[in-house]
Amino acid sequence: MTFVDKYLLSHWGFDPIFFILTGIPVVLYVIGYRRLEATIARGSKRSPKRRRLNALIFGSGIAILVLAVMSPVDYWSDTYFWVHMFQHVMLMVYAPALIVISAPWLVIYRGLPVKWRRSLGRTFLVSEQTSILRSIGNFFMNPVFGFLFFNVDMYFWHFPAVLDLAERNQVVHNFMHFFFVVSGMLLWIHLVDSHPIRPRIYPEIKRIVPIFFTTVLSWILAMIMGFASVPFYSVYLHIPGKTLSGMADQELGSAVLWVLCMEPFTYAAIYNIRKWMSREADFDYELEKLTTKSSNNKVKKRIPGLS
């Protein structure tokens, strides 16, 4: 058996519950996207590039979820801890980040039948009987909750006893994956703009705080694993045919967590800093126009760093 056959083409799986949970949003997104395209085509000249880019980003996020759960990644994660960490980073960080960045909420909502959309709008946005549901929703959408939920969830599932249990019990394993995706989305919804959800952390420069501390906490967890004197996870010891030692496997897994978890948060920090600086520059320009006393002199836009 060649390398490609053994590690890439073999050991694909099928999880019906996962397929349903991911398939429903995808189907609604496709329907909503086609309806949106048909509506815009009738009276708008706006470029479809942005919509197509968002669709591509959304599809990439769903593809990462599929690869993490149904590809050989899931199979080999039972043998190698570092593959398991790679799977966790895909579920915690990369897939949620791409889905949130794509802002699929209105497109998915538009994929529902018209009667359902009206009923949901009246029930959850207007009705006084569902005010408690709105309060619960506001609680879960609090940025402090999102930050704490993500980091507590990350540490909880990597306690040796908990991870060993998840490896031995498929139901617990599925819950672990579910909480990784949910906690990731509840964090990333506050780190990047995702229309029409309004960011709770504003201005953008303040988002550096949760980005920084989440990155540091992931480093600390990686260092605990990497600098340990003994392997933590007994389930990865004494596996037949495994040539990598338990300690080396854990050290490699810590490196995966350190490097791959840091990269998307770095991009998020750069994105928010640039957006904040651009908005501040535009504000200075508008303020300069308003405070200019001479109406005859034309005000040229100041280029930050050159004037």
UniProtKB/TrEMBL annotation:
Main location: membrane
Transmembrane helix listed as a keyword: yes
Subcellular location: Cell membrane
Keyword Transmembrane: yes
Transmembrane stretches, start-end: 12-32, 53-71, 91-112, 132-152, 172-191, 211-235, 255-273
Keywords assigned by UniProt, alphabetized: Cell membrane, Membrane, Transmembrane, Transmembrane helix
Protein name (Swiss-Prot/TrEMBL): Cytochrome c oxidase caa3 assembly factor
The organism's taxonomic lineage, starting at the top: Bacteria, Bacillati, Actinomycetota, Acidimicrobiia, Acidimicrobiales
